[in-house]
TrEMBL record:
<comment type="similarity">
    <text>Belongs to the thioesterase family.</text>
</comment>
<dbReference type="InterPro" id="IPR029058">
    <property type="entry name" value="AB_hydrolase_fold"/>
</dbReference>
<protein>
    <recommendedName>
        <fullName>Thioesterase domain-containing protein</fullName>
    </recommendedName>
</protein>
<dbReference type="InterPro" id="IPR001031">
    <property type="entry name" value="Thioesterase"/>
</dbReference>
<dbReference type="InterPro" id="IPR012223">
    <property type="entry name" value="TEII"/>
</dbReference>
<dbReference type="GO" id="GO:0008610">
    <property type="term" value="P:lipid biosynthetic process"/>
</dbReference>
<dbReference type="Pfam" id="PF00975">
    <property type="entry name" value="Thioesterase"/>
</dbReference>
<feature type="domain" description="Thioesterase">
    <location>
        <begin position="23"/>
        <end position="248"/>
    </location>
</feature>
Length: 252
């Protein structure tokens, strides 16, 4: 990872690997942050450097203005990413909101720069051309939105129980959901890179058909693996290790 990348507020690399032969950019879920991927670099081999995207409005960027729609996010993030995509091959991994952002970033880069990741890993979200949330999260009351967070899982209980902290972070969570809920898939760029899709069988927003639909969005190879578990199935070590096996094997 370059010193410039390390210094950028947009990227976090908990385990820099200057000699790595490829780089994996990880996109966090709605309401999450780059810290979700802190351990990944340690768990993946030395030839893969993990760089987590840190969007504004959370963690180290808590008091920065948030994005509420996808297109400005893509345009801004692409400008930050581009200088760091040319020195070695790169792949993308995104969970939930991160799946949308990483997929559309891949299309944006192919359309505007003629480059794309060597592999796109998506998790916890169905093929975006097949899905529309009919009960948008971002327009709900604070109480209802918090209840949805409880049902989705993944939010630490100590945060849910802390009223002051929830007041601080809820606007960012709502903004992230607005990015997702107002996103509309548009026909256009077809990716060439392989796509691997992951999900939990108990995740209510997913169906097998919806996950298989990711294969329609690339002219490259497609693979899918579903796990026992809900939306945050990947918080379990064994299932996360299974994801790592896919990431490692694609580089062989």
């Amino acid at each position: 990872m370059t010193q410039t990348t390390q210094a950028s507020k947009w990227f976090q690399c908990a385990d820099p690997k200057p000699q790595a032969t490829s780089r994996l950019f990880c996109f966090h879920f709605a309401g999450g942050g780059a810290s979700a991927y802190n351990q990944w670099g340690k768990d993946l081999p030395d030839n893969i450097e993990v760089v987590a995207i840190q969007l504004p409005g959370r963690e180290s960027r808590l008091f920065e203005p948030v994005f509420t729609s996808l297109q400005p996010l893509l345009e801004t993030l692409a400008a930050e990413l581009l200088p760091h995509l040319k020195d070695k091959p790169f792949a993308f991994f995104g969970h939930s909101m991160g799946a949308i952002v990483s997929f559309e970033m891949s299309r944006y880069l192919k359309k505007h720069q003629g480059i794309q990741p060597t592999h796109l890993f998506v998790s916890g979200y169905p093929g975006p051309h097949t899905y529309k949330n009919e009960d948008p999260y971002y327009v709900k009351s604070d109480a209802d939105l918090i209840q949805d967070l409880v049902e989705l899982g993944g939010t630490p209980q100590e945060l849910l129980d802390n009223e002051e902290l929830m007041k601080l972070v809820l606007p960012t969570i709502r903004a992230d959901f607005q990015v997702c809920d107002t996103y509309e898939f548009a026909e256009g760029v077809l990716l060439d890179c392989p796509i691997t899709a992951f999900g939990g069988w108990a995740d209510e927003m997913l169906t097998e058909e919806g996950m298989q639909a990711w294969g329609e969005l690339t002219g490259g190879e497609f693979e899918m693996e579903m796990f026992e578990g809900d939306h945050f199935y990947l918080l379990e070590t064994g299932k996360r290790n299974a994801i790592f096996s896919h990431i490692i094997n694609y580089r062989k």
